[in-house]
Here is the input.
Amino acid sequence: MAVSKARDKAAFLAFFDPAIEYHYHVGSRPLIGVEWVDRFITKYWRDHSQTEWVLVNWAENGDVILTEGREDYVNAAGVSISHPYMGVIEFREGKIIAWRDYFQMQDPAAH
Amino acid sequence: MGRNLQVVETLMAAWKRRDVEGFIATLSDDIEYHWHPTKRPAVGKDKMRKFLSNYEEGFDQQEWTILHSAEAGDVLFVEGKEVLVDRSTGARMDNPFVQVFELRDGLITRMRDYYDTAQVHAPAKPDAAKASA
Here is the structure.
């Protein structure tokens, strides 16, 4: 979260296993491989401003952490968006191998 | 298995039998159920009975399965999947979802579900059902 806030892409990508399966929105097609996460975060940071990522609750079980929180941002069209969400993150050998975010997509510009 | 997960499994088992009072018995009197983060919650046991009645009228929930869970104090998270059959169209939908439960004295006081309604309702629309036929 800290490197995301700092928009430090190299440090952000270093958390992921090369084979990461990232469901940025469960229901949309997942991104497979860290190269796609790179493309995603590049576009996300380009198109989103005033981003705020807040975790309210979380719990771990083995290599899985389940989180509940909120993501706020202003999109490229200048519209303020707020997503209450739950995220599930799976680790393997210290790297993120799977990530699934569940929320109601309210931003037509986000796909 | 943690004690909070046992309570939730009791709730799930009751619903699979369509045992409404067995389901309600796992809830506190001040239960607050956020069945979707953008909708007004159902508050209290009477509202929960009404919610369950409406839900059962609209959908036949099948194959409710927990894939992952984790507990921290009185908070339990689950990730799971369910199959919903829309009773008005017969359309069968896979719905992946996550839930947060807060418990007090062995009873569920808060439930919050996270999913995208587009995933659930889109296939139930007549045009979508026709297109996928």
